[in-house]
Every structure is written in C-alpha cells, then in structure tokens.
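hey so i finally got around to running the thing on that chain from the lab meeting. sorry it took forever, my laptop kept dying and i had to restart like 3 times. anyway pasting the input first so we r on the same page abt which one it is
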Amino acid sequence: MRMRILAKCLTLCLLFLCNYLSLGQTQGQDTNAQIERRVDNILAKMTLENKIRLIGGYDDMLVHAIPSVGFPQLRTADGPEGVRTWGPETAYAAGIALAATWNPDMARRLGESMGSDARAEGVHILLAPGVNIVRAPMDGRDFEYFGEDPFLASRIAVPFIQGVQSKGVVATVKHFAANNLEYGRSYVSSDMDERTLREIYLPAFEAAVKEAHVGSVMSALNLVNGEYAAENRHLNVDILKGEWGFDGILMSDWGAVHNGVASANAGLDLEMASGQFMSLETLLPAIESGKVSESTIDDKVRRIIRTAVRFGFLDREQLDVNIPLFNRAANKIALDSARESITLLKNEGHVLPLDRAKIKTIAVIGPNAWPAFPGGGGSSQVLPFAPVSILQGIADATDAKVLYARGLSADAAGLPLENDVYAKTVYGNALERAATNDVWGGPETVKIEAYTDKDFSGTPKILHSRRIDAAHLHTPIVVGGSIRYTASFTPIFSESHLFLISVQAEDSYKLWVNGEQVLEKKAGYDSQSTNWIELPLERDKTASIRIDYVPSQGHPQISLGVLPESQLVSEEAKRIAKQADAVIVSVGFDPSVECEGHERPFALPWGQDRLIQTISALNKRTIVTLTSGGNVDMRPWLDRVPALVHTWYPGQQGGTALAEIIFGDRSPEGHLPVTFDRSWEDSPVHNSYYAPLTKQGEIPRVTYSEGVFVGYRYYTSKNITPQFPFGFGLSYTNFSFTHLVVTPATSKVDDYSVDFDVTNIGKVSGSDVAQLYVGDPSSAVIRPEKELKGFDKVRLEPGQTKHISIKLDSRSFAYWDVIHSAWHVDPGRFTIYVGDSSENTPLKTDIVLKR
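ok and heres what got predicted. didnt touch it at all, straight out
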C-alpha cells in the first residue's frame, strides 16, 4: 500500500512539474512579447527631446530618468575588481587572476557575488567584465582582462556575466574592440585583417552576446582600422547587432565619442559619461536635415527601455538594503578566488611548502609585502574594507617570529611625482643620512631655462639658478613650451648609480649624463612610473646632467633621483635575511604603476632586481612573490631563487590565500592565462606594439603584424620555448594523463568527444587543469600548431583518477575564411593534444574530417 501511494505521489509530482515547466516556457514567450509591447507604449509617449536626452549620460555615471513616462534614473558602476562606487567594497581577484583559476564555476560565483554587491549599492549597470586580449605585458590594463586566448576568455566571461545578471544587474562586456594598449588609447588605431579580428579579438565578445545574453556592450576608445570604435559600422552594425543579433545597449567608453552624427548612425546607443556629442544641439538639426533618421533614435531608446524592463528596473527598487555591504559571504568568495588563482611557477628542491615545525623565524621583505595591493589602478580599483597584506597573511598563519623590512631605502622608495626636479642620495648608513642634505654635492647649481616653443628654440628665460638642498626646487607654470635643466653631480662612491626620472604619462624628456643621451621618453608611450638607468660613476669625478623636458600641460611635473646602487637595499633587510630560516621577498607593481591609461615597464620597478639578488645571496631559502598583472623580466634573478609564486592582483584576501599556499594548507591551483616571454625582444608583438611616430594630425597606427600568432600560438608554431608556457602552473603533487580516445559524438561530421583519464600520482591532494588543443596541419591556410579548444579543472586525492570528456564541435576545427566571410573547416587531418600546458601535451592523436 505504501509503495502504491508513493508511486502515485511521484506520478502526480512529475505531472505537476511537467505542467509547471510548460507553463514557464509559455510565460517566458508571453513575457518577451509583453516586454516589447511595454517598450512600445513608453516610446510612444516620449518626445523627441526626451529620446535624445535618454541616449546621453550625465553626472559621470548616471543615465537620465524620464519621469513623464515612468523611466527611472539608472546608476552605473565600474568593475571588474569589485563594484566601485562611493565607499568601501569587496575587492575580488582581478580579471587576469580569475582567468588563472581556469574555473568557470568560480567565475560564476564571483559574478553572482558582484551582482549582489551591486544591488547592495543600488547599481543597475556594472561596467564589467573586460575581455580584451593580452598582447604585451606592458599594457597597464592587462590585469583586468582574461589573458591571451579567446577560448579561455570566453569560458570565463560567459559564467561571470550570467552570475552578475542572475541578480538583476546588467553586465557590460568591454571594450569593443581591439583595445590592447593603454598608451595613446584615445587616438591610436588597431589595424588588423578580418581573420585576425574574428579569430582572436572578437570571440569573447561573441560568446558574451550569443551565450550569456549580456545586457550591455561598451565600445572602446581606440580606432579600429582607422575608424573610432564608436563610429565603426562594421563592428557595431554589421557584426554586433547584425550577425550576432545583440538587442541590448551599446554604450560608449567615457570620452570615446568624437562625432555625434557618425556615432548615432554607426549603432551607438548611449554616450557616456554625458551627451556631449549625441546631444540636442547636434542631433535635432541632423534629424531635420535627414542626416539621422528618427527611427535610428527610436532604436536606441528602445534598446535602453527594453533592457530596463527586462531587468525589472521599472518595477522595483534596485537598492536592496537586506544585502550587507560588509559581506562575509562575499569575503569568502574573494578568498576562494585568490586561493584558486595564485600560481606557483618555480619550486626547486621542494622549498615549498614551508614546514611550520621547522621554521622558527621568517623574514618578509619587499615593497609589496605591505600594504596590501588587492588590485591594479584606474577605474577598476576599489577600496576594500580590510585588505590582508602578504605580511599580515604570513604573520597570522604561523607561530614563528615574523620579521619585516621594506628592503629598499626609505628615501629611495619615496620618489614622488611632484612639480620639481630634485635628487636624493642614500650615501653612508641608510639610517644616518641627516648630514647629506646637499644632494648634488659641492657648490653646484641647477639651471632652469624656459623656452616658449617645444623644440628648445629661441632665447630662453632663466627661471632659477640656485643650489638644491633638502628643499625642493619648484618650477613655475610654463604653457606650451619646454624646459631645460642643467646641473652637475659629484659622487662619493665609485660604482654604478641609478638615475631615476618620473613624469606624467603624456610628457616627454631626454636625459643626458656627461654629454651622452641615456634615457628618453616619448609623449604618451610610458606610464608616470619611474624610468631608470644604471651608469658607472667615479668618486669625486663630477658628472654633468641635463634634462630636456616637454610637459604636456602647463603645470610641469617631473622628478629626478640619483642613487648609488650599493645603498639600495637597507641594512635592516640584510640583517633579518641572514638570521631567518626562510625569506619571502615580495616584489612587483602597485596601482600607481600598473594602471588604466598608462603603460608599465617590462622590468620590475627600480631597485627590486637588486633586492632579490642581494637577499637571495644571503639566504638560500628565498621565496619570491610577484604582484603583477602579467609577466616581468625575470632574467636578473630567476636562476638565483628556488621558488617563485605569482599572486597576480589577488583581491582583499590575497595575503590569507598566499599564506595557506606557503605553509601547505592548500596546494597551489593557478595556471597561466598568458605566455611568459623570456625577454620583451622574444615577444611576437615586439616589433609592432608601439605605433610609429606620425606627423601632426595623422593617426598613429599599430599594425597587428603577428596576425593570429599571439602568445602560445607563436611559440608552439615556431618551436620556441618561452620562460613559462601558457597554461603552466605547478602543484605540490603530480598528475598523469592516460587513455586518450577520440570518437564521433553525434551524426554531425564535425562533432567529436575527447575522453581521457587524469590521475593524481603524488602524495597530497591537489588540482590540475586538463587542457585540450587542436591542430590543423592539412589546412589550406597557415594556422597555429595548437589552439585551445577545451579544458577541465580537476581536484584529486592521492591515487584518485577522474575520467574527463570534452566535446568538440564544428567551431573547434574552423578558421575564418576571408573570401566567403564565414567560419570554414577544411577536410583532412587534425591533431588532438591533451596535457596541462601548451608545452606539456603528453597525449596526442590524429583524426580525419571528411566532407
């Protein structure tokens, strides 16, 4: 009887569920139709003036309310390191770190959490994620993006967007398209062929639109093939809204619009941060004259209203006061994102993990040990409530004595960007420098000559000629001209000296020492971070110094420092390194250096190479932690240290997560989402990253001469070994790959199932990323040796095996056919590779596709 009753109940439940699902599908169709009817009703009540008002933002981050039709004001907020608004927020692992997790589920969880944060702040539109492809490590915004591979970027972007939008918040995929540099980003053209655009720089955007149904797309600041992105019909109308069927909002990046009529006709729906060009003054006359149709304006308004209705903005308060701002659940997700992203790159002699029972004293040294640097700089930077630094994380995780020193001289560390030229020295004992106020030595003077033109022509006006003491030498405002500084310097050490110079991003200068030009910065090509050069100087032998400086603004901002190299590393740091059982040297960049709007150096900031060299010579158990959005020049020190851990920008719990890995509470899980070149000269984009100088009024153009051979595609095809390959990441255990079988998955000729086993053959639990690459050696066009087409992150106990199955479809084998403007698969032999990096693919087999 009980069994019959149970069976009857189950049957009724199944019938109810089927009816419910069927009703849900019908309601979904009706709801879509209702949305369009509602949009039509609102649109019909709007005046043309109100329509134009709606398509231009205001007050920097807001979209206008239209009270007469019940349309609310919409708030936008920056991302993607967190919801950046007007107070403390949760800081998550940066985009590049999220990509280093190789975990779509982590991306979804983080997106959901960020969506909840947005609701807690009353934010309607989150300006994230960024999916631009990483071409070169100097791009100051690489840390926001998901790496060099379009497939990986797509698989991280889609669940992130779905997570954000599941909370009733519009996600914005950006920057559309080919925004792969920060120098001159508002006026440089990214020039490439259609195949390169389609295969490398558009797939993540395509997946965001087609799979994640992203609510908003942001057009880039740069030009693409000679047209501003906001005015590029091929991108916005032909591809985004035409081929991909995007029905959401195409908004501009802040300041990306240059021509209101051109942008309106090229598909731009919303000009941010204000309607400066898509304005009443511009568009009303254009509509009257027929240059812009009213139906074009209606389409833009329809998209904005449709998105607002679809996300419920007209029917509820966006601010949800029941979601805590100081959110413990969000803090846990921030911790998990850091745990999964931190990447172990070197562990010679199994220095890591440290044994708590054997480590009595730990030295934590370096400029990135404290304070915490959760993320890079610019519009994505958030202010977290209580970020955990590396120093705090280590100290909280052990009972050992933790000693700390910044490592670099306090004077050397503090070379600020100010409106002066000055030099500081660290001669003698680093703690006793009070007597060294005369930073130039002797009775020398500095001469400042101001020219009315930028080419140092004509008769200059001498503004100052005085000794520089401890006081700074202030330079008066010079508009539209140039400034020359000349002085002499008498060192009291015979050794290499660092000459450090810092200016604003758009400024230019040349530095001469003893009549030889030793440093040059071209306007807009470098960041405001300090550039430097090492030069040998002899004691008591006076050196002449000259700087020709062209400020971009009327308020000059330039700083100069001269530092003897032997005095860079503090005596305090040396002492604690000698007595410690292990040393953690924390180096890298910070938000002032790796930042939106700037390029950063490929080399570590000045003095850090010497810091690693000095400390590692004093203590053989030296672990380097690197804070950065990507690769740096490791040649000066990599072979001198046994362990290297890349933390990326790990969010507010980075210090906690790193300590767990250092002490073996967790095995490292991160894998590189970018290739690490041995040198900048090795990079496939070395000769085409910087735009050649042009004449006044001409567009600087960057030709993507490497084509589709970006990152690992270049290295595997040319059989060149990089410093660390794409997909690489060490664990505290080891894994084996076996039993590769490739079989047709469906009746479709291009659908295959790739099956294999992964086994943890080590003694501790850990995770690995199984990566599937496809090669097309019989293609009619030149293609890379390997292209990532699938991956699966696995966590395994010692001895545990997991069977993995990855599906491949037609797109997995296709390339963009420029003749037919379509994706195309050539019949013939394809090679399937499986492993855990682009260079380590122990499983390999061929299949033949027939037509």
